[in-house]
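Notebook entry, structure prediction.
Reason for the run: the old model in the group folder had no record of what sequence produced it. Starting over properly, with the input documented here first.
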Amino acid sequence: MKLSFHGATEEVTGSCFLLETAAGNVLVDCGMKQGERMCMLRTLDPFSFDIKKIVAVVVTHAHFDHTGRLPELVAQGYGGPIFMTPPTKALTDIILEDSLGIMAENAEKCGDIVPYGKQDKDVMLEQTQTINYHTTIEPVPGISIMFHDAGHILGSAYISIDAEGKRFVFSGDIGNDDVPILPDTEPIHRADIVVCESTYGDRDHEPTKSRSEKLLAFAKKVLNRKGTLLIPAFSVERTQELLYELDLLVTQNKLPKVPIYLDSPLAIRATSIYRHFSPHLQVDHPLMQGDFFSFPSLHETLHAEESKKINDDRGPKIIIAGNGMMTGGRILHHLMRYVDDERTGLLVIGFQAPGTLGRKILNKAPTVKIFGKEITVRAEVGMIESFSAHGDRAKLARWLHPEEGSVQKVFLVHGEDASKMSFASYLRGTISAEIIIPR
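New structure, fully documented this time:
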């Protein structure tokens, strides 16, 4: 038996792990390594494993850094089953469809190679079988697989694989505590070896319950000075949680009455999927029953012409736009227009990878380059970490204590080096397992 790491080791993105067993090989996730700037698609190397020996691919959740190379895997000859939950399949479809447009734009502007096309994506989805939580999969005799709710995004799972007398658990991304629209992360029942994310392994988040009051305080400050509040948000999960919080503030008459624009085609489509799979959601506030993703002051600008008309609104307003790290998408156009205005507020509610525009602004760069133009940053920049969809080190450490027995080995992935080193040190004081940082 062999476990190898083909992504998300020296970086946060590109999840791809191979478990080789006597019965056959299982690939866990097949994600894209996302670049630091628009013209930088770094995952163009051949797969570093034998595709023909894979008997099953299992996918933890729909985010692009976990699914982005699946069509490429199929294009290069993988014809076997791909397993994921029903919401993950629906979200993966729109995320990969969106990526086709981005890759085509990169190819035109930067000369990037496009690793797959729409036909590859469609064939990949035809090979995909949807599996509910707690349903045993046996792709071949000797390998048993199960999905468990990770509480990260709609349909997200951590995955247990039993083979050759050992139980492996792959975390995918583990959700934050007290997320108002998702069930809690399920505890590990039993595990011998865990491959665990460490995105926030070096810190504890502020309490989730504080984010509503912090969102309100920052929004009121910006709107009361007649400014525009820009919120770059990841299209899947972060946007939906933000809409929930804004709807609650509007319902309680706490938020100034201003238009709120959801200016992200992917987020709008993802929100429709959240509505469709509403039985998978868990709402914890008595005022927020029904469709809490729609309210009177919310305007969805799906098409480019609708997005451009936001500029006609000269008054105070809130604009939620993708993408979350400000490396592309419609948020760049709004930053071009508003970030040099001191009345503007820019609220960061998600992880900003090193080298991204979002990280530069968060690190108080006096000027930034957008579409080749140097722009002065005069906007007030705020951050709320409790919107994170990832568990912090305390949450991850609790999760690594199974209900039965104890974990023998923990491999830390999905984190910057400093985060993994810090989390390894933290874990050695809380569990007896061997802690390994793979390369």
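Summary: The longest helix spans residues 86-110.
The old model has been moved to the deprecated folder.
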